[in-house]
Amino acid sequence: MGNKITIIGSGSVGSTIAYTLAVQGQASEIVMIDINLEKSLGEALDIRQGMSFCDPVKIYAGSYQDAKDSDIVILTSGVARKPGQSRLDLAQTNVNITGSIIPEITKAAPNAIYIIVANPVDILTYQFHKVSGIPANRIIGSGTALDTARLRARLAEHYHLAQQNVHAYVFGEHGDSSFVPWSLCNISTVPIDDFVNHVRSTEGHLYPELVHDEVEQYVRKSGGRIIARKGATFYAIAISVCHICRCISFDTETTLSVSDMMNGEYGINDVCLSTLSLVGSDGITGKVLLPMTDSEIASLRNSADCLKSIIKELKF
Q: How far apart are CA 27 and CA 240, in angstroms?
């Protein structure tokens, strides 16, 4: 498969994405770019030496010029979040870093689809929309794709089910103002709060009470807990980003909770956050306007306002 993917940033997230893409056989060519060339060289070499057991892939450290003709560019560069630090505390520093990257990479790869992963992801996605000149459909923030995966994992554990049976989303900011539209959550089409009343199990399952607030706190605090315990999060976000890449590369138009510019949906304008979008070979091809309750729409608008208040303080 002729598919070239460039990854900017060879830290824990960028290198794990590169490794996962290579093992999954998603790309024929992977370029790793980092201000620390030695780090990129080492990561690329380490992955490359295991490729005799995987589908062929050309993987190497390079410069912005090497990104020419990339189909997908993944941006992970930025200062990592420290224990106890919020994603938004990183804002101006990582906005400055992204601002220096944008003219270089868009000159080299003007036709790529861009996936923004670095934090604060919604603000950097907004920055990309405002200053890059790349068409809006080809800018995708990883947004709450990871939060949604964490939510589904927690609910699957609660009900002792495969995660694929759980249909639920996290919307809004990838951060503290995110929320779960519980009215839309279901397990195999059964509304999640009614699920226990529809189970006739020969195993005699007894399910503990599902407390919405506890689940939402689990999702919001997961990243911080992982960082406190091991210093960084990178496995789950890498899998989430590689899933986005797969939807693009294989043109399997898929509904994903990714960050995109809002243009009047739910009464929200001029901010990037996550709702449900259609993602395929052309990037974001549309939004799915879900029948949320008034209180859920209010939560989404609150998340938008939280992000806008930060954007007002930043210099792009």
A: 16
User: What is the rounded CA–CA span in Å between residue 266 and residue 285?
Assistant: 18
CB atoms within 10 A of CB 51: 15
Q: Which residues are catalytic?
A: 174
Please give the single-letter amino acid code of residue 71. Answer: D
Bridge partner residues of 73 (DSSP): 6, 114
User: Rounded to an integer, what distance in angstroms lies between the CA atom of residue 38 and that of residue 59?
Assistant: 15
Give me the amino acid identity at 18. A
Note whether 31 and 62 are within 8 A (CB): yes
Closest CA to 128 of 265, 308, 316: 316
Cβ pair 287, 277 in contact under 8 A: yes
Please name the amino acid found at residue 272: C
Closest CA to 116 of 280, 272, 307: 272
Per-residue pLDDT of the chain (316 residues; tens, 9 = 90+): 469 999 999 999 999 999 999 999 999 999 999 999 999 999 999 999 999 898 889 999 999 999 999 999 999 998 876 766 665 677 888 999 999 999 999 999 999 999 999 989 999 999 999 999 999 999 999 999 999 999 999 999 998 889 999 999 999 999 889 999 999 999 999 999 988 888 776 566 677 889 999 999 999 989 889 988 998 889 999 999 999 999 998 877 899 999 999 999 999 999 999 999 999 999 999 999 999 999 999 999 999 999 999 999 888 8
Rounded (5°) CA angle 136-140-143? 135
Quote the tokens at residue 83. 């224990």
SS3 190: strand
Question: CB of 182 within 8 A of CB of 215?
Answer: no
Helix (H) or strand (E) holding 204: none
β-bridge pairing 186-187 and 166-167: antiparallel
